[in-house]
């Protein structure tokens, strides 16, 4: 098979097309693959980070949400562990206490989490997730939450009396 040499003009066209496509995607906030992110942990090992991600998904399960939202919580927990040796010890020991997590079924994992629900590990993860997961503005639209209303004039002018979710009744 004979290969043709690319002309300078063709290279410039491809480069310009690639750059403009990338600019368009970034301008509109388009992300192509769902797995285009990487879980970044500095204090925990990558294996501990992945294990913690599955724990987070089980504590606050939302099947329609991708792992990227849970990864933000794991990264927050990793940051808390890097700033506090006691928090790091709680997280690492808690993850170790879960044992061979990957070899367990979903039901076994849930049973184990229910068993340790009062432990410092579980309470640390749960408490951090309340803030890092549910206070994440990127997850709000997935739940239908529009965000805080005060900066936008309050609820009175933004659907306070919008009760379209009630069934309509015939007026007499």
Automatic annotation (TrEMBL):
- Keywords from the UniProt entry: Signal
The answer to whether UniProt assigns keyword Signal to this entry is: yes
Q: Name the domain of life.
A: Bacteria
Q: Which residues form the signal peptide?
A: 1-24
Q: Supply the InterPro entries for this chain.
A: TAT_signal
The protein depicted here goes by the name Tat (Twin-arginine translocation) pathway signal sequence
Source species, please? Enterovibrio qingdaonensis
User: Which lineage is the organism of this entry classified under, starting from the top rank?
Assistant: Bacteria, Pseudomonadati, Pseudomonadota, Gammaproteobacteria, Vibrionales
